[in-house]
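for the writeup, i need someone to sanity check this before i put it in the appendix. the sequnce is what the collaborator sent (i think, or maybe the updated version? ugh). structure was predicted straight from it, no edits. if anything looks off just tell me and ill rerun, i have time this weekend
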Amino acid sequence: MRRPTAPLTVLALALALTGCGAKISGDGSNDAHDTSGRHPAGAAGHYPVTVENCGTRTTYDKAPRRVVTNDVGITEIMFALGLEDRMAGYAMPDDKGDLDGLPWKAAYDKVPRLSKKPLTKEMVLDARADLVFAGWNYGFGEDTGLTPAALGKLGIGSYVLTESCHHGTDGTARGVMPPLKALYTDLTTLGKVFGVEDRAAALVKKYKKQVADAADRAPASGERPTVFLYDDGRDKPLTSGKYAGPHDIITKAGGENIMKDLKDSWTTVGWETVVARSPDVIVINNYGDTSAAQKKAFLESYAPLADVPAVKHHRIYVMDYAELVESPRNPAAVSDLARYLRGVRTGG
């Protein structure tokens, strides 16, 4: 989610530097002071707290008060923790599904939507943010200049979605831990940052039980249907490696991710690899300008896939984008996919 930035005004820069009393550490992150009394022990008893996020340690003297988020999963992590009153706004395109009926509908109505376009530095400054919660390729990008380091120079802190942590020698691969562990890690860490540890712990406990209940009913190893996650792409499909949300969702639901050997999150592969690994099921990621129906029509008409069991037996299952990226919707997505996979016969 990328856009060029506008020149900074003196006023905007001053607001960014002084709006939350931030102290900038050497890594560009910010410290803050919470006087809300949100933590049961009171601000003095809770802060300072030091947390680690994507390998960077940051000390907070208080909870951030004007957080800006990018995209649906990241925004809903804040909502799930009950932190909408700590938010200055969020950026999110229209293609992220129906928000009506969600447990966070009231929070969506309360928090300003800054834009239906990708987050920019200008939006962050206009919102007088003291913290930006985004991820690499989920708002942060070296090519756009919207990075934790750049924001740190403006006195604005950053929290990086753990699913998107960079790793590898060239620093382009993403993901450092299993996807559901990344969700639990972010909930727990943000619980410390904002003084809501009990709420975070309760959510993690609830989600782990939800996932465990689904996994307990999964088929035995060797009887699990193989699954390919199809995001989009005609010449080369974009899919999920072992560090993106779909890997854990598929695995805990009783399937085998055919791309589990890819040590990356969202990445492209060749169609020949998909054909060779012959998935029993294809899961479509429903988002973007290309509809799920159009993606399905392509898969069913693409000649090289004709004999792949998933296509041959019409086992194409659609899931929403917000279920498949790191978000509080992941545990329910495991349960939903598990119900579908239990009816799939393997090897045919």
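The longest strand covers residues 131-136. Confidence is low (pLDDT under 50) at residues 1-42.
thx in advance!!
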